[in-house]
Amino acid sequence: MSFLIVSDIDHTLLNNDGELLAENVAALAEARAQGAKVVLATARSFSGALSIHDALKLDTPLIVSNGTVVAKRDGTILHNVAINNQTVVDVFKLYDQTNKYWILRTPKYPFFHPELVANGGPFGIEEYAKTMANDKMLEHIQNNGHTPIVAASLFGSDIEAFYNANDWQEMGLVADFYPPSHYYDKDGMSVMSDKASKGNAASWLQNYLGLNDLPVLALGDNVADATMFSLGIGIAPENAKEEVKEQADWIAPHCDNAAVAAAVRKFVL
Questions:
Q1: Domains, the chain, ranges and CATH?
Q2: What would the DSSP string read from start to end of 200-267?
Q3: What is the pLDDT of residues 199-246, one digit of tens each?
Q4: C-alpha–C-alpha distance, residues 141 and 190, integer Å
């Protein structure tokens, strides 16, 4: 049976050590051989998601930066949802007061805090990344409202208190906090427009690809992933946050035990 399978990458498709399990690769390849379409939907940037996309030999566009950007494999931007420019300025000023490391993402490339790059940031040195000093970055976003910023992230130690102290929703933003992981040994957080979500991006892409008649299998461990569950069958791995599992239609095994393969074999194959 044909399906549209939309899967998160980290802690869902990959295990907790950041490894792409052979069982998941095999199950997705078998599903594609039977007519399924597989799409990755991730908090990673476009360049950060490409290695997994290519390892799976996918031919579909990618949903990246938590649904703020949909892009073809060649980098062509199909769809993006940017943060209001004045809000970007306000967020950047808050970030600047923390003395932590920021990343501002446009649809095509990220701006990195120069010290984040020097200290080996969470995603390494991305192709086409730009670095800019704090004062220059603020000047750039104040004077270049035509440069869309789709996400603003902050990385460093003890960020959770800062994350909780600000009313991101009041600013028209969706915010996520990320504890240390295989990517980075410190805290992280990110904000994006409240008009953006993985669910909205997946729905847009389904329509763009003319796949509205296909049932959807949506998989993920985080709150951002749960926005996709209403599109069809929502799957959360055992390691997902409790609030995500409560919204899921089925709880798959832990991501260390090939959660994606288990879900695909149960519902698609």
A1: 4-80+196-267 (3.40.50.1000), 85-193 (3.30.1240.10)
A2: HHHHHHHHHTT-TTS-EEEE-SSHHHHTTGGGSEEEEETTS-HHHHTT-SEEEPPGGG-HHHHHHHHH
A3: 999 999 999 999 999 999 999 999 999 999 999 999 999 999 999 999
A4: 17
